[in-house]
Amino acid sequence: MKLKADRIFAIILILVAIVFWTQTKELQYKCYIFPRLILIMLIILSAVMFVQSFFKKSMPKGKLPKDNLKYIVISIIIVFVWIALINVLGFITSGVIFLSSLTFLLDLQRLTIKKVVSTILIYILVLIAFWIAFHKFLLVPLPTGHFI
Amino acid sequence: MIEALSGALHHIFTVKIFLMIIAGLFGGLLTGALPGLTATMAVALLVPFTFTMEPTEGLIVLGAIYMSSIYGGSFSAILVNTPGTPSSIGTTFDGYPMAKRGEGDRAVLIATFASVYGGIIGVLFLLFLAPPLAKVALKFGPPEYFWMAVFGITIISSLASKNIIKGFIGGAIGLLISTIGIAPIGGDVRFTAGFSQLQGGIELIVALIGFFCIPEALTMIGQRGKKFHLTEAKRKKGIFLQTFKDVMKKQGNLLRSSILGTIVGILPGAGGSIANLVAYNEAVRVSKEPEKFGTGIIDGIIATESSNNAVVGGGMIPLVTLGIPGAPPDAVLYGVLLLQGLRPGPELFTTHSHVIYTFIISLFFATIFMLPVGVIAGKVLHKTVVRLPVRFLAPLIIFLTIIGSYSIRNNITDVYIMLTLGVLGYILKRLGFHPGPITLGLILGPIGEAGFVQALLIGEMLPNKWMIFFKSPISWILIILSLLSLSWPLFAKKLAKEWKVKGDEVEG
Fold first, then answer.
1. What total of structural domains would you count in chain B?
2. Is B232 inside a domain boundary?
3. Which of A24, A45, A76 is facing B172, going by the closest CB pair?
4. So what's the ipTM on this one?
5. Which of A113, B51, B99, B435 is deepest in the core (most CB within 10 A)?
């Protein structure tokens, strides 16, 4: 399985390197020489990995614990939406909504109203404390939106 | 040097600086004790909070965070058998068996004393070895900097990954990402795919946060069922003094492990995660009772904890002399130095000597303060911190990465770049590529490119321009070092075999 992934990834890398190479055509010598050197290196190394994948023995199963991809994909989508809305909803409002959503997503037990309320309250307090400490005292720039 | 040192002492002896060091130590302990948060992540996540500080103050706080996060990793290693940072992997071997016997308190104290000892040795090496090395580094021209970058790449690629080819591919990916944006020489815009936001290149810290923090958070999310259990320690009277005496009796182990840690730290790319295992291996090899290792003995904890904290000082030696990070957290410090307008390299000792000496001396004090902070706060911290469930921990890490990448340039595009690189880092991690080589490629790319192109331009005067790379003796030394580091995996394999044999003996 892992070796098959290596093979596919090696092909992807070679294709990416070729695309990058075509982008260097209109550059001056002193601007393309170094990237081309890296691209040659990347193509050779990827080719070696491709060939290696046919000869190497497969890794024993279960060495890397399997991740639950469903949760990872949902989390990534939540975070992308969070970033898109952070400048609209504001730092604290968006933070409470999306941090709570992630926490609910990762909760192993059934959600109860008490749990939902307490999680939201915890995040409101944490984010307000964070906002006061870092934005007000340490003057760290934080995203702003229509709300706080 | 003496003048700069006295100036540094004068700068440090203020209540404000001491409070900053203590705050940094708390921050580092907190993040270090959290399983999944490495020292690199601790430094990367807390960088934005130092932006409004003076450059020196920001560095002082980050130095304290780095030092104590490495030490903080021992808490979870000992108490929950989960290393808080990869630098404490070896601490679980003997720390956890001790905790299981109800000697968790004693094991934590041993880790504290050993960490302080190792930290001091590393800082002393940094203080006395860095200035002469910086003088040598000042003789470096473009070809030498190019070879230095090559040397850096060869070392990390062979050390940070079990698969050498994958290590090098990771390095090449990092190098390629570093070429995005305006070329350092020539000024053409490269590989931006039409996005004007990418013209300035990818901000180093943004990339580091993405590559180091997001994959860890996603792994936590992917393994959300994992739970941690804490072992309660029994409190005994007089344990502090007795443990101190017990640790100090092991001078041979302390010194050997600290020096090993410093040397591993100096090697670019190799950090505490390697140092603690090398020191543990050596402790087993030298011991008259190797069979006792792994059953919960003091020597095991001393070896790992003194060596990983010695890495802090050691790793900064190449950073401040050559501008090459010795260990992954130094890569973040590299970015911070650049952000603060300080170019990492030998000039630090000439044009900014007051900043660098203040930083080194502050690191010394941070190590000393780690003793009271660790003893007093550690006990409270580990109980609350180690128990933080993943459902809160993973979202909070993501939250900190978003804030961290946003506040660098007050720019939401950086957050998108960070997350995209983070997801890429996760996929690469699953495919067996580690973030270490990629980030080193990112750092060494601009150094290597500037050296390479400038050298070629200078070489135009020679009959064969490529000969410029082989003209100076320093270039040849670096070429030989690069070849040696390339052959390192062969030695490492032999060592690993030996280590496996010892490990089997211990387990048996």
1. 1
2. no
3. A45
4. 0.91
5. B435
